[in-house]
Every structure is written in C-alpha cells, then in structure tokens.
Amino acid sequence: MALIVQKYGGTSVGTVERIEAVADKVIETKKQGNQVVVVVSAMSGETDRLLSLAKDITSTPTPRELDVLLSTGEQTTIALLSMALEEKGHPAVSYTGGQVHIRTDNEHNKARIVDIEGAKVHKQLAEGKVVVIAGFQGIDEDGNITTLGRGGSDTTAVAMAAALKADECRIYTDVDGVYTADPRVVSDAQRLPRITYEEMLEMASLGSKVLQIRSVEFARKYNVNLRVLSSFEDGPGTLITDEDENMEAALISGIAHNKDEAKLTIVGVPDMPGIASQILGPIADANIEVDMIVQNVGLDNKTDFTFTVNRNDYEKTMAILKKTADAIGAKEVSGDNRIVKISVVGVGMRSHAGIANIMFKALADEGINIQMISTSEIKVSVVVAENYLELGVRTLHAAFGLENGAMSK
Amino acid sequence: MALIVQKYGGTSVGTVERIEAVADKVIETKKQGNQVVVVVSAMSGETDRLLSLAKDITSTPTPRELDVLLSTGEQTTIALLSMALEEKGHPAVSYTGGQVHIRTDNEHNKARIVDIEGAKVHKQLAEGKVVVIAGFQGIDEDGNITTLGRGGSDTTAVAMAAALKADECRIYTDVDGVYTADPRVVSDAQRLPRITYEEMLEMASLGSKVLQIRSVEFARKYNVNLRVLSSFEDGPGTLITDEDENMEAALISGIAHNKDEAKLTIVGVPDMPGIASQILGPIADANIEVDMIVQNVGLDNKTDFTFTVNRNDYEKTMAILKKTADAIGAKEVSGDNRIVKISVVGVGMRSHAGIANIMFKALADEGINIQMISTSEIKVSVVVAENYLELGVRTLHAAFGLENGAMSK
Question: What does each C-alpha distance from B213 to A72, A202, B348 come to in angstroms?
Fold first, then answer.
C-alpha cells in the first residue's frame, strides 16, 4: 500500500462540481489500494474576494490579520471536499494548517515551514480515512495563523509528503506535465516522463511556470518524488525525482524561455575592485532582483557591465543606474527591454562540453545574434532580440532532436 | 479601569462600513479608559452562503465538516474588524475560538463550552490591545473545530466575560433594550433600565427574543453583568443582573407574549399512574418540545390532558397523539393552532399572591376567555385565542401600570 499526497489548486476546486470531480479522483486513487492525503487551495476567486474586503478597509492591512482572513479560503475548501468524499461513501477528515501543526516562522504573508507533525495524519490514514489538508497556511510557535504566500499550497503538499514519508506527491495543474519546450511555441514539443529536481528548478526559474520553485527545492531537499499531472485529463504526467544511477541521464531535457526580462548595460566603467558592488548595490537596495550578470574586460582599464532584471523593474533600474554612472564616472548607460532569454537545460551536459557549441552554431545558422551568454552546470542561456523567440526556441528544439523526447548521451 | 466585553451580531458587522462603525464604538469605549474584548458573529448572509455551498454537495453534511466550514464566517469578521481598528490607529489582535482555547464538548453544530483560558487575552489587554474574538466557535479536546449553533455568539461573549472576570458584557442588538412589552404591540411600552436574570429568562423563553436563553443562563450561573444595547443608537440599554438586596424588587417587569405555539387536548383519558408519560413519551421521542402542560381531574376516573408545542410541530404532534389516543382508549383528541400565550413576569410576585387575580380580572373585563393557565414563581401565563393578542397585552400592560416603567411593590 502506497501513501500518496495529492494537491489540487484553486481552478481544480473552483466550483462545487469541480470539488466533486476532485473527490472522484481521490476515491479512484484510494480504490487502487493507496492511502491518500489531499492538499487543497482556496476556490479560485475566493482569495481575491477576501483581499477586496480587506482593501475596502485599508490599503495596508496588518500582515497578521491578513493571514487570519486569507486562511479562511482553504478552510472552506477542505470542509467542502471532505463533505463530498463522505457523501460518496468515503470517510474523510479535514485539517487546517494549525490543526496538523504545520509550524512556520512568524513571517506573516510569506512564512516558511519549519516543522510538520505527521502523527495525527498517520493515525487517521490507518483508520481508513482520506485526510484533507488546507494548503498555503500554518501556525507560528505562538499559535498565530500564518500563510506561505500565493501558490504556497504546492509547498504544503511537498512538505506534508516529506513529513509523512509519502511515496509520491502529485501536483494537479492545468497542464499535463513538463515539456521539452513550451507547446505553444514548439508544436512537436514532447512531454517528459521524468526530469531531475535540478533540471526542474532551472526550467521553473527560466519561465516554465508549472510548479513553484520553492516546492521543487523542498522536494529536492527531502527527496520527495514529485509528479505534475493534469486535473482535467488522465495521464502519467512528469515525475520529478533524483538523478538515478540506473537512469540514463538525459543530455538535454528541454528548451526554456523567459520573456519577462530586460537588460541594462553600463559602458566605460573604471575596472577596479569593488566596482560590481558599487553598480549592483543600489539596485539590490531598491529590492530589484538581478538575474544574469556579464562583465567584459575592456581596453584602457575600462570595462562594460551588463545585467538583466524583471521587465517591470526596467524603468526604475535605469534611473538608478544613471545616477550610479554619474557617481563612478562611467561613459554611458544603455538598455533594451525587448529581449528574450532562451536556455538549454539538461543534467547530462555536466560532462559534455560541446552543448554550448551546438547551441551557438544552430542560432548562428538562422542569423540570430546572441547578445549575452550565461552558463551553469546544467544549462546554457543566451539573450537574443525578442522577435527571435519562436525561431530560436524551435531551432534549438530541433538541433537537439527533442521532437523525439529528451536527448540522451 | 474596567474590562468590558462587547458582542456584535451579524447585522452589526454586515458590511465593511458597519465593521468600521463597530470599530469606532470599540475605540470610544477604550478611550473612556476601559480594556475591551470584542466578540463578533459572521457578517450577515455569510453563514447562509456557506450553508448553500454545503447544500450543493450534500443534504446531510458531516457535522464535523460543517463546523470547519461555518467557523470561517466569524474568522473573516475578526480579521476585518482588527484591520479596521489598526487602520484607525488602535492596536488589535484577533483570535479564533481555538486560538483562545474555548474548549467545548464534541457535540458538533451544538457544542457547549466547557472551559476558556483567559491568560492569553489578559496578556494582550495588558499590552494595550483590543482583543477581537470569533463568536459561536470553539475546539473540543482533540482540537476539532466545533460550533455552538446559531446565535451562539452571545454565549461566547458571556463565557468570555466570565472567564476574564469582566466588569460587564455588552450585547449589541437591533433593539435598544428590554421593554415592559413588545413596543410593536404596546405603543407606550417602556425600556427597563434593569432586570434580573430570572425575569430575562422568562421573557426570552416567552418570545421576547432579544437574547439567546443559553447566554442568560450562563450569565446567571457565573454572575456576569449583562447589558443589552442598540448597535445603531447610543443609550444605556438594559442591564441584566442579579437581584440586588438594595434594589427595589419590581413587582411586575413586563408582559411577554408568544404566538409560536399550538395547543392539543386529549379528552377522556383513564386517570391512572403513568398516563402522562404514555401520552408525552412518544412526543418526546419524536424530538418535539412540549411547553405548557395542564391536566384536569374529571369525572368517572377520566381526565383531560392539554399541552402546547411549537406551532411548526402541530400536525406532527396531532398524528402522534391520535395514535396514542387509540392505544390508551381515550375519548377524543382536539387541537388549536390559533392561540397566543401571554405572560406577566416579575420577581416581585414571589411574595405577592394577588397578581394572578389582577390579571384574570383585567382579561375578563375585556371579555377575553382564558383557555389555559400555567404559573411559575415569577410568572403567570395564560393561553387565549390569537385574535386577542394585542388587546390582551395592552390590557395587562395598563392593568399593571407599566406605562410608567416596571411596577414596584
């Protein structure tokens, strides 16, 4: 008998009819001989309804009270799903985050899980019950209600799976798995049956927003088998797991892209120690996250410094950068917010130096100019002009033969 | 510095604007130098909205899960009221029933409070905060969420006042106090500045639905000073308290009436031991509550037996009674659901035998026929035909001189 944790998001439980459909899926899993724990989000629209009530009172709600308010959303769903299960003849019991001691720190609105007590859940499972748990919420050590921030239900599910030593944590979403590229861009993109945590982290951080990054990190840390599946269609989805000794490591798993970035360059900077922090310090102070950073050594003890930020932060960053340029005596500042980052991801490239070369050549053959390059152990990213998005992704998808699935060594 | 518990019902917190008005009332009380604990209900309409979600899933929701669902209603209100207080510059902290350990038995949907831990609330009050508590809910000893049943927020407020040894528990309602009679029936009915617990219990059980009976019982048991006031107008309301040695005991406090009853009579019953339980047993088994019971000794070892039930239970009771009549060989069964019960209430009548006589004479002078009589230590009730409701109440109000307030000895 396996222990399966399932997580359903707001759209999957958005109406009473959908909650009943979720109950059917849970029952099916139970009938296959499994113990089932279900983690649910608030019904879609509910969180916004509650936020709008708060907004009518104040534009700056107390973080603690906002958590008390928002946590009612999932509490409503757990009650309704448990009722639906009972109505269909399957004993169920619901728990809020506090009731199963999902202990978090006290950072209201964006708390992190510290500990989960699994004993109560195991006891109910042993009695044959389905256990339904409110996602997204917990309590701090003083018993105050906390929330993990939007999308935090994925993290609840993974943390619960880790605490219970579940066999698998299944995240039901509106897509049926992780693909070799965005199917809206590459029509013959293939669903990956399996992918490593590290690859998934790179894919997620590069714009394939199937799962919350935090939940994948959590899964990797506690070695939880994570599966992404569709709420609406049957299918095996994609299993996200550890790199297996016996598993033939994929050279390339997929092509990710991200068009939410903008790049900024400061030209003719005096090349001396500490200059990078003089440039990036004021940007970090403004709470702007920097993604790629490239520095070229130039002539005359001068250097050029280029980096990318979220496109929404472009204007703000540009203003800060101009001030910095004046202060440090840089020659000029330029920027471009019509760029796209395209990345080739695969754990197999660790031991294969030729990947970058294949990538650059394929892009060159199509006349696509590379503006920036950045590499990590398991990915190579390039920045190109935004209008090359589709062509670039399709070219690389074909260059690595991904229309037949992940490329093996 | 006094400690005041205030309770606001669903209508008083029915919109964001009303919640803000409640915040103003709370702040005013605090500015007068008091510590304030506020108990609130769900926003009006919210409980029905949640019930309708449950009803879409099942006609028989699991009682435990229904409590998980309904308890979100008050949780929403406590968060919003606390935000409103903070927005107006007054530190506040909200607690669910579970968070302040309102321990109940495990009778879901109609739980009874067993214990309340006041330490956490006292600590927050000492730090200058307003404490906002969800009414109507608690937890059982296993940490399951329970509810006290509809209207239970009054009980939460009184129990909280008892646990905290508060100076006064103020229940804000849509009326500005307890009156000598229903002002819709008697235009010169007077607000009573003060009334005893016992009188209030009789008034409440007789149809003056200002307060939940259970909350008054609780207040009497723990000697909590209870005050009924208007949410919408300023005023001292009515203080419900213990009979005071120094307080001039009112002979008659008011005239209550109840038109929700129906009477049934079984005629020609063999007068023998156990006959009352043979008649009432099957009715109790059907969960029908019996109010007044009158038995007349008749001729030939036969007796007539009359009792009243809630008007909604009339048909059902009649069917049961007919079966019983056949079984015990009674002569016939009759009934009337167009009756009204009118009662004269006052602790002072304990030591004054003439009250009943004044009452019967006043009614007789108006040609009102009395169908049943029942008395307790502090009330005399009569059943008359429904069309005499207004005339009967007005006649008695005048007969006891209540247009000048409670009648003294």
Answer: 30, 63, 21
Kindly compute the dihedral angle of the four CA atoms of residues B374, B379, B384, B390, in this order, to the nearest 10 degrees. -170
Shortest Cα distance, chain A CAs vs residue B36, angstroms: 18
How far is the C-alpha of B30 from the C-alpha of B50, rounded, in Å?
A: 34
Contact (Cβ atoms closer than 8 angstroms) between residue A299 and residue A342? no
Distance, CA of A177 to CA of B133 (rounded, Å): 44
Between CA B165 and CA B224 the distance in angstroms is 8
Q: Is the pLDDT score of B45 beyond 90?
A: yes
Contact A40, A74 (CB under 8 A): yes
Chain B residues 335-374 with CB within 8 Å of chain A: none
Burial of B373 (0-12, 13-18, 19+ CB in 10 A): middle
Using the Cβ of B286 and the Cβ atoms of chain A, whether some distance falls under 8 Å is answered with no
Closest CA to A249 of A177, A186, A198, A181: A198
Helix (H, G, I), strand (E, B) or coil at A65: helix
DSSP string, B361-398: HHHHHTTPPP-EEEEETTEEEEEEEGGGHHHHHHHHHH
When CB atoms are compared, the residue of B57, B72, B143 closest to A16 is B57
**Over its length of 409 residues, how does chain A's per-residue pLDDT go in tens digits?**
899 999 999 999 999 999 999 999 999 999 999 999 999 999 999 999 999 999 999 999 999 999 999 999 999 999 999 999 999 999 999 999 999 999 999 999 989 999 998 999 999 999 999 999 999 999 999 999 999 965 589 999 999 999 999 999 999 988 889 999 988 899 999 999 999 998 888 887 665 667 878 888 889 999 999 999 998 888 999 999 987 655 556 688 899 999 889 999 998 888 777 788 889 889 988 888 888 888 876 667 788 889 999 999 999 999 999 999 999 988 899 999 999 999 999 887 776 667 888 898 999 999 999 888 888 888 889 999 999 999 999 999 999 999 987 766 5
Exposure b/e, B237-259, CB count within 10 A at least 16 = b: bbbbbeeeeeeebbbbbbbbbbe
Q: Give the Cβ contact number of residue A360 at 10 Å.
A: 15
Structure tokens at B8: 């606001």
CB distance B174 to B400 below 8 Å: no
Nearest CB partner across the interface for A68, out of B20, B87, B94: B94
* Structure tokens, A67: 């958590």
Q: Which residues of A touch B92 (CB under 8 A)?
A: 62, 65
Q: How far off is chain B from A133, nearest CA to CA, in Å?
A: 12
Measure the CA–CA gap between A182 and A207, rounded to whole angstroms: 10
Is the pLDDT assigned to residue B207 strictly greater than 70? no
Distance from CA of B340 to the nearest CA of A (A): 42
Tokens at residue A31, please? 């009938």
d(CA A217, CA A197): 8
> Please, which residues have CB within 8 angstroms of residue B406's CB and are 6 or more apart in sequence?
B180, B190, B192, B195, B250, B251, B252, B253, B254, B346
Domains and CATH numbers, chain A: 3-173 (3.40.1160.10)
In this predicted model, what pLDDT tens digit does every residue of B161-206 receive, in sequence order?
A: 999 999 999 999 888 899 999 888 999 999 999 999 988 888 876 6
Residue B298: Cβ within 10 Å count: 14
Contacts (Cβ under 8 Å, ≥6 apart) of A50: A69, A70, A72, A73, B76
Long-range contacts, A328-331 (Cβ 8 Å, 24+): A328/A269, A328/A270, A328/A275, A328/A278, A328/A279, A329/A270, A330/A266, A330/A267, A330/A268, A330/A269, A330/A270, A331/A267, A331/A268, A331/A269, A331/A302
Enter the tokens of residue B361: 């004479």
Threshold 0.90, pTM exceeds: no
What is the pLDDT at residue A295? 80
User: Rounded to 10 degrees, what is the CA torsion of B36, B42, B43, B48?
Assistant: -170
